[in-house]
């Protein structure tokens, strides 16, 4: 079905195609979810997922189709980024397919209907997480994160603080000196009985920044890290005519650099703080590589654009074979086994 639809979808502007896909998905009955396979069960920050293959934030920003995405076989789904107030984002066009590179560049700028609009579509569910951010024109960004945490705490199995979008000017600055204050404010807003808090970081970090972020995370009440968001880098091998567009690059060219940054965090944090690996996962081998690099679970988005809705089930089945081939009894057994082999840090 996707094979037949793909050429039609690819003739449309990417944002229009995405909107149609979401509308169609939200009208579908919920599918069966991931196939049961004890080898693929994973635990993360006190949560239990039947598969380590998750949907990354940004696909379902306004929480319109999360049940259907779970039904497609994702082990967990993260909706958002949601900001306190609705915002339109940057002018269109603002999503570009780099088909030759199996990549996407986006500069959406947190377009979303706002927390209050999305809340009625959320429901407590052990595999649904919510990603929160700050409004572009906010005068107190840390207060925006605290407001997001307070608003969704009763309806999210985990909450992700997204400080790594490259498309809100200055947002990534929160990865610097202000990080301890942000983490403290978010933990206070969450309270003692709220869901685990995760932090989502950029791949564009040097060793000193990674050191500082890791130290701030260990010093906080954070429960885990997502590594990583899109990159501002433009690898020289990009071929598409859209390669010079401004925004964050995702998909295949992000796989290697985001996996290196994942290893750098794993070396500093594992096993004290669990990690989710994101960036360029399109195959079982790539999901396996993220796990071996230190991730307890992975997330993907861009590969769905190129490979369609059967992808999460396909990756899960392939991953199970790879784990079995190498004699692992569980995902946990494979987490981080490649870390010592990395040349970085
Ligand atoms: C069109 C688009 C929109 C995105 N929007 C968000 C977002 O709102 N919040 C967020 O945390 N990440 C967002 N991301 C980043 C993804 O969640 C993910 O971290 C990144 O794309 C790397 O994974 P991938 O290579 O599998 O796409 C977005 C990515 C894309 C392609």
The helix/strand order is HHEEEHEEEHEHEHEHEEHEHEHHH
The strand order across the widest sheet is: 3-4-7-8-9-10-12-13
CATH C-level label: Alpha Beta
Helix content: 25-40%
**CATH superfamily, called what?**
Aldolase class I
What count of helical segments does DSSP give?
Answer: 12
Q: Alpha-carbon distance between the termini?
A: 45 Å
How much beta, percentage-wise?
A: 15-25%
In angstroms, what is the radius of gyration? 18 Å
Set out the fold topology.
Layout: H1 2-11, H2 14-27, E1 42-44, E2 47-49, E3 53-55, H3 66-71, E4 76-82, E5 95-98, E6 103-106, H4 115-118, E7 128-132, H5 141-152, E8 158-162, H6 179-190, E9 197-201, H7 207-218, E10 224-227, E11 248-251, H8 252-269, E12 275-278, H9 284-292, E13 297-300, H10 302-307, H11 311-325, H12 331-334
Parallel strand pairs: 3-4, 3-13, 4-7, 7-8, 8-9, 9-10, 10-12, 12-13
Antiparallel strand pairs: 1-2, 5-6, 6-11
Helix pairs in contact: 5-6, 7-8, 9-11
The structure holds flavin mononucleotide (FMN).
Briefly characterize the structure.
With about 350 residues, this protein is of the alpha/beta class.
Structural description of this entry:
It is built from 12 helices and 13 strands. Helix 9 (284-292) packs across helix 11 (311-325). The chain has helices at residues 2-11, 14-27, 66-71, 115-118, 141-152, 179-190, 207-218, 252-269, 284-292, 302-307, 311-325, 331-334; strands at residues 42-44, 47-49, 53-55, 76-82, 95-98, 103-106, 128-132, 158-162, 197-201, 224-227, 248-251, 275-278, 297-300. The protein is of the alpha/beta class and 345 residues long. The relative contact order is 0.15. It has a single domain (2-341), classed as Alpha-Beta Barrel (TIM Barrel). Helix 3 links the parallel strand 3 (53-55) and strand 4. The N and C termini lie far apart (45 Å). Residues 56-58, 61, 81, 95, 104, 106, 108, 131, 162, 165, 200, 229-230, 250-251, 254, 278-281, 300-303 line the site of flavin mononucleotide.
């Amino acid at each position: 079905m996707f094979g037949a639809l793909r050429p039609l979808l690819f003739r449309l502007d990417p944002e229009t195609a995405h909107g149609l896909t979401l509308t169609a998905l939200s009208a579908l009955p919920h599918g069966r979810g991931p196939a049961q396979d004890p080898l693929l069960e994973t635990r993360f920050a006190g949560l239990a997922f039947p598969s380590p293959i998750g949907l990354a934030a940004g696909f379902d920003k306004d929480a319109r189709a999360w049940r259907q995405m779970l039904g497609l076989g994702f082990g967990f789904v993260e909706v958002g980024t949601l900001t306190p107030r609705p915002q339109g984002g940057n002018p269109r066009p603002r999503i570009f397919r780099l088909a030759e590179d199996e990549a996407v560049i986006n500069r959406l700028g947190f377009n979303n209907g706002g927390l209050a609009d999305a809340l009625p579509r959320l429901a407590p569910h052990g595999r649904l997480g919510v990603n929160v951010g700050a409004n572009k024109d906010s005068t107190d960004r840390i207060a925006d994160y605290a407001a997001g945490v307070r608003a969704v705490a009763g309806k999210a199995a985990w909450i992700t603080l997204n400080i790594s979008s490259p498309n809100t000017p200055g947002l990534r600055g929160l990865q610097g000196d202000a990080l301890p204050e942000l983490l403290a404010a978010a933990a206070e807003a969450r309270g003692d009985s709220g869901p685990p808090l995760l932090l989502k970081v950029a791949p564009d970090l040097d060793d000193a920044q990674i050191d500082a972020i890791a130290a701030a995370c260990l010093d906080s009440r954070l429960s885990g890290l997502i590594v990583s968001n899109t990159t501002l880098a433009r690898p020289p091998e990009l071929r598409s005519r859209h390669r010079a567009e401004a925004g964050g690059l995702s998909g295949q060219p992000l796989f290697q650099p985001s996996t290196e940054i994942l290893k750098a965090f794993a070396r500093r944090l594992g096993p004290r703080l669990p990690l989710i690996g994101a960036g360029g996962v399109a195959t079982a081998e790539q999901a396996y590589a993220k796990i071996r690099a230190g991730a307890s679970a992975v997330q993907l988005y861009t590969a769905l654009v190129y490979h369609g809705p059967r992808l999460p089930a396909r990756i899960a089945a392939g991953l199970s074979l790879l784990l079995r081939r190498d004699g692992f009894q569980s995902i946990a057994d494979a987490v981080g086994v490649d870390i010592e082999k990395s040349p970085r840090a």
